[in-house]
Design a protein that fits this description.
Elements: H1 3-26, E1 33-38, E2 41-47, E3 55-58, E4 64-68, E5 71-76, H2 83-86, E6 96-98, E7 103-107
Antiparallel strand pairs: 1-2, 1-7, 3-4, 4-5, 6-7
């Protein structure tokens, strides 16, 4: 094969790899249930499929979560770096995390019940 053919083949494989990585990181889980956790406890369970009108969820420590049609995001927070606000809407399997306020927003694709792999305890007991 000539050098141009190898370069074209490499570019095509690189493009397919990047497209596959983007698709996997931005797809939503099958269900639309989202859990809002603070201090490790489930504060609110939201079904994004049922959110017809936008509304806000006010949490302790100055966090406000915005729920809109099909999406959820951190609207405001009193933490210094504002990474959770800049992250935008929840996409893929990456949760929204506000470390200073101990808030996590993630899809509930798996039930929370089960054993903790480290301590062997059942969560919530």
């Amino acid at each position: 094969m000539k050098t141009r053919a190898w370069i074209a083949l490499f570019a095509a494989l690189l493009l397919v790899s990047c497209a596959a990585a983007w698709y996997v990181s931005h797809r939503r889980p099958a269900d639309s249930l989202v859990g809002v956790y603070q201090d490790g406890r489930l504060v609110r369970c939201v079904d994004l499929a049922l959110a017809a009108e936008p509304y806000d969820i006010a949490l302790a420590d100055g966090c406000v979560v915005r729920v809109e049609a099909g999406e959820i995001r951190m609207l405001s927070s009193d933490c210094p770096d504002q990474i959770c606000v800049a992250q935008g809407a929840l996409t893929g399997n990456l949760p929204i995390v506000c470390v200073p306020n101990r808030v996590v927003i993630r899809y509930l694709s798996e039930p929370d019940a089960g054993y903790d792999a480290v301590s062997g305890a059942v969560p919530g007991n």
